[in-house]
Structure prediction request, 260 residues.
Amino acid sequence: MSANFAFLSTPKTPEAPSLLRDLPAVTEQKLAQDYAGYFSYQFTDSVPFLSFSSFLDGKEASFSLDLTSGTIAYRRQHGGGRKQHIAKACGLKHNWNPTILDGTAGLGRDAAELRNLGCSLRMIERSPFVASLLDDAIQRARQAGVALFQTNFSLHQGQSTQLIQSLSQQQQPDIIYLDPMFPPKSKSAAVKKEMRLVKLLVGTDPDADVLLPVALDNAKYRVVVKRPSYAPYLNEQKPSMSIESKGNRFDVYVLSSPSL
Ligand SMILES: C[S@@+](CC[C@H](N)C(=O)[O-])C[C@H]1O[C@@H](n2cnc3c(N)ncnc32)[C@H](O)[C@@H]1O
Prediction:
């Protein structure tokens, strides 16, 4: 781990998650300010949650992940429906709940959405920092008793190109879903803050193009690539079709159709 991040460790907080154990430990918040950012445990109703903080424009900014509130929880409770663009892009039907490998898990939002729609999800995230934040959110959702995330929702930390190529034929997913980083255009304050922190953690995914041929060789039925509307096709490869969403586009590469 080369990044200049620290872990704020206090007697009252849990020890660092395994993927962050190599980070330098600091015992006081003011010492953490010497680093580009730091991880720490905060508490809500005595439940610890992992958070990442950094100084943006001279002000401390933090973020953590939560699969039990906000849009994810709303959709879980009220249903998002298969009319959603992401559902259409994955070709979901009432009698087809595919296995999906999300090769760029990130904050886990799209994966949670697809799980909510009935799919089985395996997620891969290469950044140990983002994977730690996401794993923390998954464990909290499970402890809170959210059944949806207890099964068919797993996260592996690693490089997708390698992990996907090591799958046996039996392990091949129906769909591979990709959403690599692309420089944002949005100036919205909320997006900006979270995106800036995520970018600090993972950079820009300059090698994103190589994901597509690997995915196309290893998915059974289709590969779905989420891009900002203004972004070119991944690997400059034209999809079978594109589904426009608000600010985003789902490029769909159809390989074959499931016999239902
Ligand atoms: C834009 S984010 C994904 C956001 C996600 N779709 C969501 O809903 O939260 C892209 C993520 O993909 C990860 N990533 C990029 N290339 C990867 C690769 N080859 N293997 C594993 N993870 C990768 C990055 O570290 C980053 O966290």
Remarks:
- DSSP finds eight helices and twelve strands in the chain.
- The mean pLDDT is 92.
- The pocket of S-adenosylmethionine is lined by residues 103-104, 106-110, 124-127, 130, 159-161, 179-181, 202, 205, 211 (CB under 6 Å).
